[in-house]
Amino acid sequence: MGLRTIADMDVRGRRVLVRADLNVPIRDGIVTDATRIERFAEGMKPLLVQGARVVLLTHLGRPGGQRRDGMSVGQLVQPLARALGRPVRFCEYTCGPKAEEEAGALPDGEVLLCENVRFEPGEEANDPALARALARLGDIYVNDAFSCAHRAHASTEGIARLIPSVAGPLMVEELDALAAALEAPRRPSVAIVGGAKVSSKIPVLRNLVAKVDRIIIGGGMANTFLFADGHPMGRSLHEADQVDTVADIRARAARSGCEILLPVDVVTARDFTAGAAHRRVPADGCAEDEMILDAGPESLRRFSDALQSSATILWNGPLGAFEIPPFDRATVALAQEAARLTRRGDVTSVAGGGDTVAALNAAGVSEDFTYVSAAGGAFLEWLEGRTLPGVAALMTTQDAA
Fold it and tell me: What is the maximum span of the chain, computed from C-alpha positions, in angstroms?
């Protein structure tokens, strides 16, 4: 993408203001999963060795522009210090005279964590005054929070227009992985798109059919496509009002030469409960009192064949109701096949989205994929082909540094 990165900068003795995403789960004041902190810390260690004076901004939860004790980022000081292997100072203010004083007094190679940026009322409104106050904390701004890049906030977009701004290590890693999956993929490429509703992913589907060679559609979304073909749905989740949308997506796919793969057999049940009695039927065989809850074994075989004949796999959304066995079988089996192909070096595999990450974790294969994005909303907007404000702001400041 041509972004200038922190690796291009001389950071010794300079205040490096880093927007991170350290929004981790906390219970009773204890971080229950420090993975996000640990990944971020690895990218910061080289800067500290070079003598950067690192000032950190992050959010924690959704405090709504006011102070909430349970959402203070002071709770992150110890796990962050452990991950960095050095002490972390904490400022009880996000910005202002006290924060500026502490940032100015920070020795080379040390870290200052400022209070939750979302305690500030102007953060989510991208208030210019707040952006200016935050910018006074650093000489260089680093956005290392791709997961927040779809939000035009003061700490993600406003600052970048005020001081020299660059992309951080995690931001670069994410953008490179996503570009490899969609912007310049190894061919043939296949996208797996699942989830509940076509209506929630219309922009995603319209963008993908123009960029990949095949799309596998699963979950409730597949039901809507099958309904558009005249198949009975029984009590299955589907959107009867999206038939015209399905026709439009199919027409776009035909024009761009993208093949759409749908289930040819499905798993149905009368009850949506763990271990419920179920049966495999053709895609047009759902009874009036049944629900389609997963793709069937023949569908899985065809989907696996599509993966085996591809060089790039992009995955967003499960194939069925993966949270409740036995309706997780197609998702788990296809995830394991994608992981096997990745381990062999046959494919580049990129996945993202909350349900997708959970499904890969449940299948025990998230570590085997080439890249798994935890970005959520930013990942989805990227799939839609939208410009992310946090990235766009970095692009406009390339000459400033």
Answer: 71
- Within-domain flag for 197: yes
- Active-site positions read 36, 197, 354, 377
The residue ranges of DSSP E strands in 177-288, in sequence order, are 189-193, 214-217, 259-261, 265-269, 278-282
pLDDT at residue 399 in the model: 44
User: Structural domain of residue 219, as residue ranges?
Assistant: 186-383
Q: What is the mean pLDDT of each run of 10 residues along the chain (401 residues)?
A: 84 97 91 91 97 98 93 97 98 98 98 98 97 98 94 95 95 90 91 91 93 96 97 96 96 98 98 94 97 97 98 94 93 96 96 86 92 85 88 72 43
pLDDT at residue number 400: 43
Confirm whether 366 is domain-assigned.
Answer: yes
| Cβ count within 10 A of residue 53 | 25
Q: Is 346 marked within a binding site?
A: no
Which one, of 191, 195, 190, lies nearest residue 318 by Cα? 195
User: Is 370 one of the annotated binding-site residues?
Assistant: no
Nearest to 329 by CA among 316, 320, 340, 342: 320
What pLDDT score does 64 carry? 92
Rounded to whole angstroms, the Cα distance separating 57 from 66 reads: 16
211 annotated binding-site participant: no
- Residue 14 assigned ligand-binding role: no
- For residue 68, give the CATH number of its domain: 3.40.50.1260
Q: Is residue 61 a known part of a binding site?
A: yes
Q: Can you tell me the distance from the alpha carbon of 238 to that of 228, in angstroms, rounded to the nearest whole number? A: 10
Where on the phi/psi map is residue 89: left (φ > 0), alpha (ψ -120 to 50), or beta?
beta
